[in-house]
Structure formats: structure tokens, C-alpha cells
Amino acid sequence: MKPEYKSTTGQMRQAVSLLRRAARPDQHHLGWAILWLAIAALLEVLGPIMGKALIDEHLLPHHLDWPRMAGLLAGVVVTGWIASGLRYLQLVRLSGLAMRSVMRLREMVYTHVLLLPMSFFDRAITGQLVSRVTNDTEAVKSLYIQVLFVMLDSTIVLIGTMCAMAWLDWRLMLIVLALLPAVLLIVWLYQRWSAPAVTRARALRSEINGQMAESIGGMSVLQASNAEQRFGQRFATTNQDHYTARLSELRANAWLLRPALDLFNIILLAAVIFMFGHREMTATEVGVLYAFISYLARVIEPLIQITMQFSQLQQSVVATARVATLLDEGAAKEHTGHATHADAANDSNAPAVAIRHLNFAYNEGQTVLHDLSLDIPQGDFVGIVGHTGSGKSTLLSLLLRFYPAQHGSIMVHGMPLDAIDNERFRAEVGLVPQDPFLLAASARENIDMGRGLTQEQIETAARAAHAHDFIAALEQDYDTPLGEGGSRLSVGQKQLIAIARALAGTPRILLLDEATSHIDSQTEQIVQQALDELRGKVTVIAIAHRLSTIRDADRIIVLNHGRITETGAHEQLMQIDGGLYQRLYLLQQLAA
Ligand SMILES: Nc1ncnc2c1ncn2[C@@H]1O[C@H](COP(=O)(O)OP(=O)(O)OP(=O)(O)O)[C@@H](O)[C@H]1O
Question: Where is the ABC transporter domain (predicted)?
Fold first, then answer.
């Protein structure tokens, strides 16, 4: 995934639409928050008006009406106090909204990632993806608090204060208003200056996560190839770039934003005092001056608040836009075909797999499979062999619907692959991958994989895979935690668990992608025995590098540069003088 440098407006639009989506169930809170914040702003605006009344009507004319004076003074204090209380409560309300929205957003992102097509993961970098789900969604929370609370609150206070100023002296208010566009100019300049740095800093942080995850994941290879220094240097460069990007962001803040706003504050005060200086001060104008100066702070402060949030706001908008981009990434085609298990089961004469004129390329112009046609009868054991890169795993990926074929067709039990609904398809076809993927969970959970299977189903599958005995010997048998990636098992045992997992779904077709490549001959025999017991009941399609494992297959398919060059049983293929299979087999015999 490359960092996307979209326009700020584009990012903002993306971010806002995502925020609205995530906050939809909490929308009513927003209405209430606006109402209470408006009431708080009104109360706050009342303070200087009461202060003005105290000065103009009592202090200057020495009209010492103590009860009314005490009332006005208490009014100034109490309105300010209630306004703060209301504002605090709205902050709590909006923070709750923010956290619930982030929770929803995380769920949305994770569920979406689970549905992405395999082609997406060919490009994706794990660390960056994890960063989207965790860091970026967390940054969205700041966006809620900033946009919803600070911005909303500050805008309401600003509007209230301007109205109160207009009521006191509209000409003075106009002067203040005329000067406000200067703030917008400052903010615009700041944004232009700092936006590229903000985007860059985020992208680099993601890159840092990516590098960390990659290095930790491949630590044994990294250390064994003495690459620590090189990786350390690469990391240091990215880290330095990140530091530089953050620094230019801070520079924009320190050199432009803060000084410009302070200067603006002084200009505004000077303008108001200058206007008063040019007028004949009457006694009543002292109160107005007091109220005006009080209000000026209430104009400047929200403006500073709004502008000071921009740096955080930009970071959050960038993060939110990246989450939105991930959510826009097309999910894998939802297969909702009506061809169910029952339909397929009825067609008992149809081949388990029928492939016609299949062509496939990962990237345009680089065809990996060329015009493949093939029938695999139900219950057959078929081996697929060929050189590295000949397209064996690709063929399996297409049978598993991980990628759509560009030309040609694949039928499973007489049904076009696309027409079978997802759930049935996954139940029908089991996979034992080359590298068994084990969760940091118990043996039971690893076989079950969230399918809600009974203990009996799990045990039957484990027995069929010859995994029951070693699982039963673990201290908590099926409930024993297997460690991260199944670290407490041998490679062969992991493979047997993976076979048990595939068998537990009672598939009618079992795909094995070099399932015996990492295991010793003894374990291989166990796997072989397990597969032999499935013969006739399940259609087995096995990719094999070690040809001894498919020697007894009903049919062996030899792939060469994405084309089927030979097919037949072992004996038949051995008859083809100079044939690829014969050469591969003899080579392996020699090596043994
Ligand atoms: N995700 C991918 N994106 C682009 N090209 C790919 C991808 N996976 C495989 N290829 C290419 O497709 C070709 C066939 O690869 P494939 O993995 O199917 O071969 P294979 O016969 O299974 O090899 P091996 O025996 O080494 O596993 C290779 O040239 C490979 O580089």
C-alpha cells in the first residue's frame, strides 16, 4: 500500500462522510450537545452584560443598591459557573459518542478486511494494515472530540459573543468582524504550509509500524542472514524522515500560527481602544468598554482554539481518510448463488472438478495458466506436479475462488464455481496449505475455527488426520493452548492439525498444497495413511514436490509453464521417454 496524497478537500469529504456513518446511531446526542452548548454560550455572554450594568448603573453613579449589586455580582459568577458545568457535561457526552463511534469503526474496518479479495493482500503490508485498524481509528477519536466539541463549542461562543457585541455597539462589532478574515487567512496559510508534512508524518509512522512487524515476523531469517545492521539503518532513515516531517509541522505551528495569532490579538485590542479614544467618553461608555474588552477575549480564545486544533485536526482527517480509503477497497465478490450442497450432491455423475480452457494472469499480459482443460472424477486422488513457478498453487487458488479466472470455466460437481453460495462452497472444499496457519489458541479451537463443531466431530476429524494421539497426550488434551502460531508443536504435528481442521468440515473435495513438504518420512507416512483412508470418499487434489507422496494417485497432472503437458497414472507417465515427470522422478530417486 502506497501512502495516498489526496487533496485536503477530498480527504475532508471522505472523513466527514465516514464520521457521519460511524456516528449514525448516536446522532440524537449531537442535537442535544448543540442545544446545551448554545445555552452555555448564552449564559457566558450574559456575564459581561451584568458586569456592565454593575459599573454603569451602580459603581460610576455611586448608586449603592447593595441587594441588586450583590445579585449582579452573583449573576456574573453563577452564569460562568453553570456555563462551565454544562460545557463539561457536553464534553462527556461527545467523548462517549466518539468512543462508541471508534468502536463501530474498528469493527467495520476489521470485518471489511476479512472480506477483502486475496489480490489485496498480495499488495498489502501487514504492519500498515494493522496501523489502519488500530492507530488510524484511534486518531478518528481525536477528530470527533476536536470537530464536535472544540470546534462546535468555540463556534457557538463566537457567534454568541458577536451578537452581544452588536447589541452593545454595532459599529465596534463591525470593526472586530472586519478584522476576523485575517484569522482565516492565517489558518489557510498554516494549512497550506503544514498539510504535506502532516500527511507525510502519518505515512511514515505507518511505515515504521510496517518495518517493525516485518522484522519481528522474520527475525530468524534476519539474524541468520546477518541483516541486523542493514535493517537497523533502513529503520533509522525512516525514523529520521518521520522526525523531520514532524519538525516541519511544528515549525509551521511555531513560526506562523502562534505569533500571527498573538499579533492579531494585539491589533484587535488596539483597534477597540483607539475607537474609544476617539470618542467622547461618557460615563455609560466605561461599562461598554469593560464589556467589549471581556468579549474580545471570548472572540480571540475560540478563534485560537479553532486554529490551534488544526494541526491535530489535519492528522486526524488524513487518518480518517485512510480508513475510508481502506473501506472503499472493493470487498471480494459475495457469492450468493443458489447452487446449494443438495443441488451439487444430486449430480453424482458430474466430475468433482471440470475445467475448460482456463486462462489466468495475476498481472495483465503475464499469463500464468494457459488454456487448461481437465476433468477430475468424484472420489479420485489427483496429484499435481511441475517445476517451481509452473502454476500449481495458482491453479489451487482459482479452485478456492481466491482469484477470478479471466477466461474459461471451472465447474465443481456440475455447478459453475461462481454459482455456489459462499457457505456451501467453503464447506464443500477443504484446504491444507503449505504452511499450516495455527491460531494462538487451543487444539480444539484450531480445529474448530469458529464453526461451532461438537467434540465428537472434532475428535473424529483429529483421528482421521492421525492427530488424536498426540493431542490426547498434551496436558489438557484438546484444551491445551498451542502457543503463538502453534509454537509448541512440531511442524509435522501442525500439519496434522491443519489436516484435521480441513477434514472437520467434512469436505467433498480436499486440496493439499504441498502438505507434506516440511515433514519427515515417518510423519509423511501417517499423512499418507490418513489420505489413503479418505480414498473414494473424498476427492483429493494434492500438489506435491516430493513425488513419492503422489505415486499412488489415480492420476497425475504435470504442469509446465502453466500448461498441462502430461497426464496419467505413475506407470503411464514413467513410460514417456524423456517426459518431464519421468525426469523429475528419476532425479528425485537419484537424490534419495
Ligand atoms: N500473488 C501473485 N501475484 C503475482 N504473481 C504471482 C503471484 N503468485 C504467483 N505468481 C506468479 O505466478 C507464477 C506461478 O506461481 P505458482 O505459485 O502458482 O507456482 P507453483 O508451481 O505453485 O510454484 P512452487 O512450486 O514454487 O510453489 C510464478 O511465475 C509466480 O511468480
Answer: 353-586
Residue 55 CA to ligand 1 center (angstroms) comes to 85
Does residue 298 have its Cβ closer than 6 Å to ligand 1? no
Ligand 1 atom showing the smallest separation from residue 394 Cα: 18
Q: What is the CA radius of gyration of the chain?
A: 35
Give 524 Cα–ligand 1 centroid separation in angstroms: 25
Among 452, 146, 133, CA closest to 319: 133
C-alpha to C-alpha distance for 151 and 142, rounded to whole angstroms:
12
Ligand 1 center from residue 217 Cα (angstroms): 22
Check if the beta carbon of residue 19 is closer than 8 Å to that of residue 93: no
Q: Which residue's CA is minimally distant from atom 9 of ligand 1? A: 394
Report if pTM > 0.80.
no
CATH 3.40.50.300 spans which residues of the chain?
A: 341-591
Contacts with 110 (C-beta within 8 Å, 6 or more apart), sequence order: 133
For residue 116, the 8-state DSSP code is S
Closest to 432 in 3D by CA, of 387, 497, 520: 497
Helix or strand or coil: residue 457? helix
Question: Which of 97, 325, 317 minimizes the C-alpha distance to 194?
Answer: 317
Residue nearest to atom 13 of ligand 1 (CA): 389
Whole-angstrom distance, CA of residue 126 vs CA of residue 116: 14
Strands in 539-543's sheet, in edge-to-edge order, are 429-432, 509-513, 539-543, 381-386, 555-560, 563-568
Binding site membership of 392 for ligand 1 (Cβ less than 6 Å)? yes
Q: Which residue stretches of 374-421 are H helix?
A: 392-399
What CATH number belongs to 8-328? 1.20.1560.10
In this structure, the residue with its CA closest to atom 12 of ligand 1 is 368
Residue 382 DSSP one-character state: E
pLDDT tens by residue, the chain, 592 residues: 444 445 677 777 888 888 888 888 988 888 898 899 999 989 988 888 898 888 888 888 788 888 988 999 999 899 989 999 999 998 899 889 888 988 998 898 888 888 888 878 877 777 777 777 777 887 787 777 777 788 888 888 889 889 988 988 888 888 888 877 887 788 778 777 887 888 888 789 888 988 888 888 778 777 877 788 888 999 999 999 999 999 988 888 788 777 887 888 788 888 888 877 776 656 567 788 888 888 887 787 787 777 767 667 777 888 888 888 888 877 666 655 555 555 545 456 788 889 999 999 988 888 899 999 999 998 899 999 998 889 998 999 899 888 888 888 898 888 888 888 877 788 888 888 888 888 888 889 889 888 788 898 899 989 888 889 889 888 888 898 887 777 778 888 888 888 889 888 888 899 988 877 667 777 777 777 878 878 888 899 999 888 888 888 899 999 999 999 999 999 998 888 888 889 888 888 776 6
Q: Which residues contact 467 (CB under 8 A, 6 or more apart)?
A: 493, 496, 497, 499, 500
Ligand 1 center–CA 107 separation, angstroms: 33
In words, the CATH class of domain 341-591 is alpha beta
Measured from the Cα of 390, ligand 1's closest atom is 21
**Ligand 1 atom showing the smallest separation from residue 545 Cα:** 25
Residue ranges, CATH 1.20.1560.10, the chain? 8-328
Measured in angstroms, how far is the CA atom of residue 449 from the centroid of ligand 1?
A: 27
